[in-house]
Amino acid sequence: MTLRPFESLRVAPSEVEGRHAQGHPEQRRGVTAWVAREHHRFEAAGKPYVYLVPSAAIFALDETADAVLRTVSQRPHTRDELSAAIGDQVEPGDVDATLAELARVRAIGELHAAAQPQPKVIPLAPFPLTTMVLNVTNQCNLSCEYCYEYGEDKIVDTENGKQPKFMSEETARESVDFMLRESGANKVAHVTFFGGETLLNFPVLKNTIAYARRRAAEVGKEVDFSLTTNATLLKPEIIEFLADERVGVTISIDGPKEVQDKFRVFHNGTGSYDIVAPKIKELLKRHRSRPIGARVTLTSGAMNVKRIYQHLTEEIGFWEVGFAPVTTSPNRKHAISESGYDEMLGQFRDLAYDFLEASVANRHHGFSNVKETLEELHKGVSKAFPCGAGLGLLGVATDGDVALCHRFAGSDAHKFGTVRDGIDREAQHAFLQSHHIANKTDCSVCWARPLCSGGCYHEAHTRYGETTRPNLHYCEWIRGWTDVCLRVYGELSERNPAFLAQFDREEADAEKVS
Amino acid sequence: MKHLKSVNQKAGRVERATEPPDVVALQRTGLPQTQPHFPIGCSLVFSPGWEADRTGGTAGLCQPVERDLFDCHIGCYWPAQVPDQLNHAPDWTAKCAAAQKDWRKIDLIFP
């Protein structure tokens, strides 16, 4: 059966309201006029594609579909006007069939049709916990100037605050029990050790892994471990342990010596590069059980993305490198300005195209930012919340307080219960209610919202003092970056679809932590 | 679809979810059904032509023309809606014991 769009229900103009309340002249006579719904058109491999919002579906368009969509994007068109406008470019009869298909996937709609309601659905409780980030210490042996935990924008007082400086073994065990309890039907629970500098509390970390493996086996589950470290305290026995226990390791490092030593310094101001570089090389040599990634903080003074990437992969040997712009108030000297975001986008684009060419040739490329976004594009993720914080991911402070995520660990204002008493479901529900994408009116007109959903809560808190606010300072950057990733995705779908098939697996992965 | 090609997983799901239903009437296709199938009442009831008899009149029909009222009342909505006998007009046909004889006694109902 073929839908015939021009036969669909006529809507009398008097019954409708909206942006085109005066109505298209044809519409007033009872003829349907078509308008484009929210979408983002892009080209890849010389062909047109469309990313639909909010479904996050990606369709390749043929010439007719592209011509129709582009024409109705300019202004509403009736079928006859459309035929007159593009009739010479298309086969007779194709306009009707194309309108039907575009309407079917909601790339276009009738001018006066009521807007599709977008329900505000709060996930059902209890939502299973996938990833628990355990802040085993809030102390650090470095004093990176930009650090969100110690720098000028910190949320929690880690020096004179109420939390102990190190998590006790007892609290760590209670956290493991909490994790296993709250993981619901999940077979695998992910635990990420975090800090402070995680390895300052290595004894507790080590014993916690043993305890968690034992407890998980008793309840028929598995636990996957990972940690983030600045690498200063790596030594052979620790490396040996991490390799044997298959602990995933992420190293916080900013790049070559001149970049690393700019902000990643010891308390006395000495740069850390010369200390960490040989230790990281040792780790990479010994720890082969899991890929090891670098996590780079980009600041106003350290923006040479390609150079940093090349150093960390080719010269140091990291398997993957992920970049994140520094989270900071706008007036700090390391804050990235608007033009800085443009520059960063240009460099990300270059590196993303390197990634594309490598992936077309089935060679590994370690630019993890693009890979993560490609996976979300492939699945068609359309988020109600920017990340899993407060849902599948929770942070635990050194005293066992459960928080929105590790970046808020220890903050009473962002507390979700304790590992002893469990998740405070009321606080969780209230949080989800007030942070749903439906509340972010600024985002309601942005085509990139299925992926961004307003962006990082912590970034918003640092910039605007509220986690509920969308991060309007990097909208252009997000849209630019999403567009780059869509183009890479389109190219891959054309030139090496087998590469994308790797994302077809369904299991729940650990939330990324940075 | 001919002019659009689904590329990512979500597009595939959108395409499958909006597949126009096939017209199957009473046939058994053997294919798994995506939604419940309701055959329309008239097609279940064998009511041989009451429109006209062989002479062109209505006297010789095998069923009286008034059968129409009750056929539509029970089976479908053509040619006219009949009152809701469950709720608003339970006594609508009280005076009409035999439709062939008493159909004039059926009155209009005003909601």
Structure description:
The complex is a heterodimer of chains A (514) and B (111). Chain A contains 17 helices and 16 strands. In chain A, the strands form 3 sheets. In chain A, strands 12-11-10-9-8-7-13-14-15-16 form a 10-stranded mixed beta sheet. In chain A, strands 5-1-6 form a 3-stranded antiparallel beta sheet. Chain A has a 3-stranded antiparallel beta sheet with strand order 2-3-4. Chain A has 514 residues and is of the alpha/beta class. The two termini of chain A are 51 Å apart. In chain A, α5 (169-182) runs parallel beside α6 (202-218), α11 packs parallel to α16 and α12 (368-379) packs across α16 (475-495). Chain A folds into 2 domains: 1-7 and 33-117, Outer Surface Protein A, domain 3 (Alpha-Beta Complex), CATH 3.90.930.60; 131-376 and 384-431, TIM Barrel, CATH 3.20.20.70. Chain B has 111 residues and is mainly alpha-helical. Chain B has a domain at 33-105. Helix content of chain B is 19%, strand content 3%. Chain B has 3 helices and 1 strand; from the N terminus they run βααα. The interface between A and B is medium-sized, with 32 and 19 residues.
Q: Ends of chain B: how far apart?
A: 47 Å
Main β-sheet description of chain A: 10 strands, mixed
Task: Find the CATH topology of the largest domain in chain A.
Answer: TIM Barrel
Mean pLDDT across all amino acids of chain B: 70
H/I helix tally of chain B = 3
Rounded to an integer in angstroms, the radius of gyration calculated over CA atoms of chain A is 26 Å
Beta-strand content of chain B:
under 5%
Low-confidence region ranges of chain A: 1-22
Structure summarized in a few sentences:
The complex is a heterodimer of chains A (514) and B (111). Chain A is globular. With 514 residues, chain A is of the alpha/beta class.
